[in-house]
Specification:
The structure holds three protein chains of three kinds. By secondary structure, chain A is an alpha/beta fold. Chain A is built from nine helices and twelve strands. Helices cover 31% and strands 27% of the residues of chain A. A six-stranded mixed beta sheet of chain A has the order 6-7-8-3-9-10, sandwiched between helices. A four-stranded antiparallel beta sheet of chain A has the order 2-1-4-5, with helices on one face. In chain A, β1 and β2 form a beta hairpin. Chain C has a two-stranded antiparallel ribbon. The chains are: A alpha/beta, B alpha/beta, C mainly alpha. Chains A and C meet through α2, β6, α3 and α4 of A and α1, α9 and α10 of C.
Chain lengths: 268, 353, 362
């Protein structure tokens, strides 16, 4: 992608977040452009979800700034923001027993009473089909399995039709078929001009689908570049504190942990 | 207090001179021999007033209508018809007053405290002693309602006014000091002020006579008088209230030549009292309502449940005087009989015990 | 994606249409039932007025000289100054309480939130009781309603702040908060009982039991605008409340100004609760039972839930009040007693059921 030439859609400047005096994220500088599929990777507690929340405007940075379309996040009203970016959260919650179709339709809320509302039905149908939940349309959301809930929520995100899509570990509860399918849809969105930001744990998936990988470690942006630039054995081994091997598979990096034996827990 | 006094009023007045299940009708105080010292008496006494029969005034002049009165709340009410009257209050005083004014025939319903023979057949329009039911009242098609603020919900009274029925609200306080005034208020509303004057004078005369007799037997010095509390007890849950200033019990205690402990500790109205306050008050005599005392298991049950009370002179000597719930604080035309019966129970208990 | 057969989709579409038709049917059914209940209730009471005479009385008031007038001398007065305002009040209070329940459950994302259960009703009652005991009349006949509103608002905010943690309402926390608040408010009421004179005491006791006895048009005139504004505002909140069930963050992601919605919704709950409490006392469980039954029939969507709850609440209370004022000759049973008698066991059942089925708890 040659996205770097255009003006960034989302930018973070020295962005940091502190919670209870503990820095969760610090000094993040990031320019994100339309048409990119950006994977945020890193070990547990590296600050991936926090960065995603920051970019989504869920909370304000403690230090630095996050700008959407050149304007500080706080200047965007919730509804305008919702027309710009959609977010799939890591955990799905629903207080009442809505049908899957209704949940997907909630993604259309930002377009209520606009011209685009006319397309609601077709957009919802297409979103459900792309997330492979159209056969679940009349099921109650709380009765679905974790993976199904995740896909139904992904359909809601697609129905929102936003130029920015943010996904927080969307593949965690999915089987291989749906992992691949979801990321294919995500990449298709990026190809059609959307900025897609995905938090991923599976580095091989990041290597296969991302245009750009941002590696976070201890709340800092450790590396930012193409998958082949970032997903390198020595760097990953250091960041994850575990020996990692990276093999090239038809031009995409495949990340494999080096497996050794671990003994039983000591008994006292 | 209405919520309290309202519950469980069931006693009916016996004919004069007959022994009842709970006690003997009191003879006139001047016909019995008082104890040399009221403190010499041990044991509970039930006071039963004589003269329960309605005694209409001699004046039979027809009501002068329309009668326009300004009631106790300052509302100007014009009464045009007294053929169907409801006189309702928590004590039953108003209905009794209407009867003694000679207009008992015009009453079309009664409250739960109105239990004398002449009125007992009237339909009851209050439940639990103090709940008014609008439709039940309206179905009696009253042309005049005389009441005070002791029954509720108050909005029902206002609904009656909105329905176009003249409602005269009289003084809600009961005590010896306003019996005459209350009687005149009721009479004025009924268009019979002269009958009211006659009844008021009669009540005052009778009360004065009894009070004079009491003065003859009560200790002259205030410090010699029996330290008295009026306790309201209901049930066995340890609920007990002390009646203080403006409760109606204060004027009763004074008129009986007793020493009002509530007055001494500046106790106002009707409030729950603590065990220690009772011990500190050291009453020598306790006045109670009959049903209340019964509900607490009688004197024995009460003393067992309230050890504090047992630790007072009244408790040690079991000096409790009770009277029917519907009578003891009712005042009205029966005031003199009530005073007499209580005085006999206190100063000449041998006559009735 | 590609492997999806077409048949289930079209079947789903048909089911969806069926579901969509259920909404208007429910509303129409509830409306008809409410009208029927209002008519029966207006024609029934301790003073017997035959239906034809009730109709005649209404027609005469409307200026039509048709039908017989009530034959009982006080029949007309009874209908217009006692029975009709009371029936109207029952409908208004029922609608207000059920709507308050539906909105509260939406804001808390929890089907157990209800003004009576979590102490908002008694909070409103304490404030209104204080007005009576201290004889405050700053706002004329609106003083009690205004105090009830303030009391309800403070309690709702308290419940909200105390029972929410990290954007979620834990059921246990919510119920415990309710217990604590109910304990505090009942202490407040007891204290007021202690302070008050006879009449104030009477009114406070009357309140804690909940009753519609003694309802007058002047009270209806105060409650009606509060209830109407409250229900209308609740209907306007329906869409964002649907979205709020996704959770605070996800709701913001689809464009809901969560903080503002929450604030507005809490004001609406307090307004509706005050409308019901200021003149009828504490009538618990209406806000619990009605929205829940509606959800069972029509699903959780607030656009249907809120108007259907308003109608259902009105229907329930009109029927309950009819029973309360006719069951015992000459007496009025406290209506709050009836709703609690039915609502209490329902609450137990709801707790058990919510625990079993997914999605019931936050």
């Amino acid at each position: 992608m040659s996205a770097a030439r255009t003006r960034p859609v989302l930018e973070a400047r020295g962005a940091g977040v502190e919670r209870g005096g503990v820095p969760i994220l610090s000094g993040v500088d990031l320019d994100l452009h339309a048409g990119e599929l950006v994977a945020l990777v890193g070990p547990n507690g590296a600050g991936k979800s926090t960065l995603l929340g920051l970019l989504a405007g869920d909370f304000a940075p403690t230090t630095g700034q996050v700008r959407l379309d050149g304007q500080p996040m706080a200047d965007h009203r919730p509804r305008d923001l919702a027309r710009r970016r959609a977010v799939l959260m890591q955990h799905q919650a629903l207080a009442f027993g809505f049908h899957v179709r209704d949940v997907v339709a909630m993604g259309r809320a930002p377009w209520h009473r606009t011209e685009r509302a006319a397309a609601d039905r077709t957009v919802i149908a297409s979103a459900m089909e792309r997330a492979d939940v159209d056969h679940l349309a009349d099921r109650l959301f709380p009765t679905l399995s974790g993976g199904e809930q995740s896909r139904a929520s992904f359909a809601r995100v697609l129905a929102q039709e936003t130029p920015i899509v943010m996904l927080d570990e969307p593949t965690a509860a999915l089987d291989i078929r749906h992992q691949e399918a979801l990321l294919q849809v995500a990449r298709a969105e990026a190809r059609c001009g959307a900025l897609v930001v995905v938090v991923l744990h599976d580095l091989s998936l990041a290597g296969a689908y991302a245009d750009r990988v941002c590696l976070l470690s201890d709340g800092r942006l450790r590396a930012d570049g193409s998958p082949t630039e970032v997903l390198r054995g020595p760097l990953l081994s250091e960041v994850y504190q575990h020996p990692v091997r990276v093999i090239d598979h038809d031009g995409t990096p495949v990340v494999l942990p080096v497996r050794g034996g671990v003994g039983c827990a000591p008994s006292y | 207090m209405l919520a309290l006094a309202g519950c469980g009023i069931e006693a009916t007045t016996p004919a004069a001179g007959t022994p009842t299940a709970t006690g003997t009708t009191a003879p006139p105080l001047d016909e019995v021999t008082p104890l040399a010292d009221p403190r010499a008496w041990d044991g509970p006494v039930t006071a039963v007033p004589a003269g329960a029969a309605v005694e209409p005034v001699s004046d039979t002049g027809a009501p002068r209508l329309p009668a326009t009165v300004t009631d106790a709340q300052g509302t100007e009410v014009t009464v045009t018809d007294v053929s169907r009257v409801l006189a309702l209050d928590v004590h039953g005083t108003l209905a009794r007053t209407v009867f003694d004014l000679g207009l008992g025939e015009s009453l079309v319903g009664r409250d739960v405290s109105t239990q004398f023979d002449e009125a007992s057949d009237l339909p009851l329009v209050t439940q639990n002693g103090h709940d008014l039911n609008a439709e039940a009242i309206l179905s009696l098609d009253p042309t005049l309602i005389i009441t005070d603020t002791s029954l509720g919900p108050w909005d029902v009274v206002l609904q009656m006014r909105e329905a176009g029925i003249p409602v005269v609200v009289v003084d809600g306080d009961r005590g010896l000091d306003n019996v005459a005034a209350l009687t005149r208020e009721v009479a004025a509303a009924l268009g019979v002020p002269s009958r009211g004057e006659e009844l008021a004078t009669r009540i005052e005369r009778e009360v004065a006579a009894v009070t004079e007799q009491i003065a003859g037997v009560a200790p002259a010095a205030e410090t010699d008088r029996l330290r008295t509390v009026f306790l309201y007890v209901r049930g066995q849950a340890g609920v007990y209230y002390l009646f203080g200033e403006d409760s109606g019990a204060d004027t009763l205690i004074d008129a009986l030549g007793l020493y009002d402990v509530a007055d001494e500790i500046e106790w106002g109205g009707v409030k729950p009292v603590t065990d220690e306050a009772i011990v500190a008050a050291q009453p020598e005599l306790v006045l109670m309502m009959t049903k209340g005392l019964e509900s607490a298991g009688g004197v024995d049950g009460l003393l067992e449940r309230l050890p504090a009370l047992a630790n007072t002179p009244a408790g040690e000597h079991r000096r409790f005087v009770d009277m029917a719930d519907s009578q003891i604080l009712g005042y009205g035309p029966a005031s003199a009989d009530v005073l007499n019966a209580l005085a006999v129970a206190v100063y000449a208990p041998e006559a009735v015990a | 994606m590609t492997a999806v057969p077409a048949a289930p989709a079209s079947r789903g579409l048909a089911a969806g249409r069926l579901r969509a038709a259920r909404g208007p049917l429910l509303l129409i059914g509830l409306l008809l039932a409410l009208v029927a209940a209002l008519l029966v209730s207006a024609g029934t009471g301790q003073l017997a007025v035959p239906p034809a005479e009730v109709l005649g009385s209404v027609l005469h008031r409307l200026g039509l000289d048709a039908g017989p007038l009530p034959s009982h001398p006080q029949g007309d007065a009874t209908l217009w100054s006692v029975r009709f305002p009371r029936v109207a009040m029952a409908a208004l209070a029922g609608a207000a309480l059920a709507t308050a329940g539906a909105v509260m459950q939406g804001v808390f994302g929890n089907p157990l939130a209800e003004p009576g259960v979590v102490g908002v009703s008694s909070g409103a009652a304490v404030a209104a009781g204080a007005v009576i005991v201290f004889d405050a009349t700053a706002l004329g006949s609106w003083t009690v309603a205004a105090a009830a509103f303030a009391g309800g608002l403070v309690t709702t905010l308290l419940v909200y702040l105390l029972s929410r943690d990290g954007g979620r309402t834990e059921v246990v926390t919510l119920v415990l908060t309710g217990i604590a608040l109910n304990a505090m408010t009942s202490a407040g009421l007891s204290f007021l009982l202690f302070l008050g004179d006879q009449q104030a005491r009477e009114e406070i006791v009357f309140w804690t039991l909940g009753s519609l006895n003694g309802t007058r048009w002047s009270a209806v005139a105060i409650v009606a605008p509060l209830a109407v504004v409250g229900v209308a505002a609740a209907v306007a909140l329906a869409r964002p409340l649907d979205l709020l069930s996704l959770g605070d963050r996800a709701a913001r992601h689809v464009g809901v100004d969560v903080e503002r919605l929450r604030l507005v919704a809490i004001v609406v709950v307090a307004l509706l609760t005050a409308a019901a409490v200021s003149f009828c006392g504490i009538i618990a469980f209406v806000g619990l039972v009605v929205p829940h039954l509606v959800r069972m029939v029509a699903g959780p969507g607030h656009r249907l839930l809120i108007p259907a709850s308003a109608l259902g609440g009105a229907l329930l209370l009109v029927c309950a009040d009819l029973w309360a004022r006719t069951a015992v000759q000459n007496a009025d049973l406290p209506i709050g007693l009836l709703t609690s008698l039915v609502g209490g066991p329902f609450f137990f059942w709801l707790i058990r059921r919510s625990r079993r089925t997914a999605g019931g708890w936050a």
